[in-house]
Amino acid sequence: MKVLIADPLAKEGIEVLKTLADVEVKLGQSQDELKSVIGNYDALVVRSETKVTAAVVEKGSKLLVIGRAGTGVDNIDVDAATRRGIVVVNAPTGNTVSAAEHTIALMLALARHIPQAHASLQAGEWRRKDFMGVEVKGKVLGVVGLGNVGSEVARRARCMEMQVVAYDPFVSQERARNLGAELMSLAEVLKGSDFVTLHLPLTPETKMVVGRKEIAMLKPTARVINCARGGLVDEQALYEAVEGGKIAGAAADVFTEEPACGNILCRSKKIIVTPHLAASTAEAQVLVAIDVAKQIAEVLQGRPARYAVNAPLIPAEKFGTLAPFVQVASSAGRLASQLIDGQMSGLLIKYEGEVATFESTALKAAVVRGLLEGVTDERVNLVNAGIIAAQRGLSVVEQKGGVSENYASLLTIEVTTSAGVTVVAGTVLRGEPHIVRVNKYWLDIVPTGGHFLFADHKDRPGLIGAVGAVTGKADINISSMLVSRLQPRGEALMILGLDEALSDKQLEQILAVPDVRTAKMVRL
After folding, report:
1. Which residue among 447, 463, 497 closes a domain?
2. Where are the alpha helices (DSSP H) in 48-91?
3. One of 84, 155, 276, 451 is an active-site residue; which one?
C-alpha cells in the first residue's frame, strides 16, 4: 500500500505509517500536481494547507482514507469522499493540552498586562504604575463549555487556587465535581466571573453565545478569553465594551474571519490577540500526527477508525433495515437536547416491538449523536459514541423487550437531568421517521426540518389565538399547528411550525400569556 503525505507531518507519525505502507512526502503541490499523482495512493495525509477538493477525490481511484492531522476538516470535501466510500479521519484530541495551556497563558497575560508592558519597555518607556495587575488566586473563572479543552482549563485553574464555575448543560454534576467546577446557568457564570473563557464548538445553537446582551452581564472587572471559535463572540460588542471601560479586558486567539489582520479586536491596545496559536506546539503536532497515522493504519487494515468524520452509523449489510430507525433515533436525541432543562446525567433508550429484535449499537450511537452534536466538535460514530458519553459523565442504559401498544416498533429515550426527565419517542411510518411522543403527550411530527415552537400550557379558549397574535405581530407565519392535551381544559402541549425562529423577546411575550408555562424554539 502507498501513502501520500502532502503537508508537513511530525516524523513520529510518518514512522507509524511506514510500518505497513510505502510512504512518500510531497509538499507544496498545486491542485493540478496533486490530481495527477493521487490515483497512485491508498491514503492521503494533509494538515490545513492542502485543499482536498472534489476534483482531487475523483482522481483518487485507489483512495481508502484521507487523514487530517488536526481538528477541522474544512479543507476536505467530506461529501465527495463519502460518495466515493473514502473514510475521512481527523485528530480532535491531540491538541487539547496545548489549547488549554494557551488559554491559561492568555489569562495570565491579561491579568498582568504582559504584552502591553513589553511593548512599552521596548519603546523606551518605564511605566510601572500604568500596568498594575491582579492575582488570579482566589478569582472566579467561568468556563463556558466543559468538553475536552474546557475540562483541562478547569483542572489547571484549580491548581492556581481559582474558584471554577461552569456552564454546560450536557455535562453531569458528578463530572463537574470531579473537575472541581460548580455548574451554573450561563447568566450566573457571566455575572459572577472575574475571567470568562469559551470552549464550545461553533454551531447554530452556539453562534454569538456571548453577544451584546451577555457582555452587558459581565462585571466591570471581568476579562473574556476566546481560544475556541471566532463566531462565539460578538466581536464589535466586545471591542466596544473593552474600549468603553465596561469590562477590564479581553484576549482572542480565534476570529470570525481568518487571517484576521484587519479584525476590529486587533485595533484595541487593551485586547490581546494571537494568530490562532492554541494548537501550535511541538508536542501537539506530534500527538495529532501519531493519532491520525494510527487511524489510517486501522482503516488500511480493514478496521474502524476512532475519529472517522464520515464513518457510517450503519454497516452496509444492515442499511435497509436500520436506516429509517437511525433517523428516528437521531431526531429523538436532537429534539430532547433542545427541550431539556438542568444538568444532564442519564440516558435510557427503550426499544419496543420489532425494533427490539434489531442489533442496537447503531441506534444507540445515533441517539447520542443527536443529543450531543450541538455541543461537541467530535463526530459521534459507532466507535466513539460510548466514549464521548462517558467523557461527559452521561450514563447510557438500553432496555429491550415488550410490545408497544400503539405501534409495531417504538424507540423511546428518557433523558434525566437535575430538573427532571424529558421523554421523546419515535417510530417509522410509511418508510419515514415520526416523533410520536413528547413527555406525557402523544402526537405525530415528521422531523423534516424547520422551526417549531413547543409550548406547555393550560387548555383554555383564546390561548392559541393569543399566541398567534404574538407571531402575527412579529410578521412570522405559522405553517402548521398541533395541539395534544391530556383532557379538556387540562394540561396541553402546543407545537407551531414557523417560517422563522422567534426572538428571545418574542418568546418572553408568549410566556407572558396567562396559562403558558413554557415556550421553547426547536429546530428539527
Report:
1. 447
2. 54-59, 78-83
3. 276
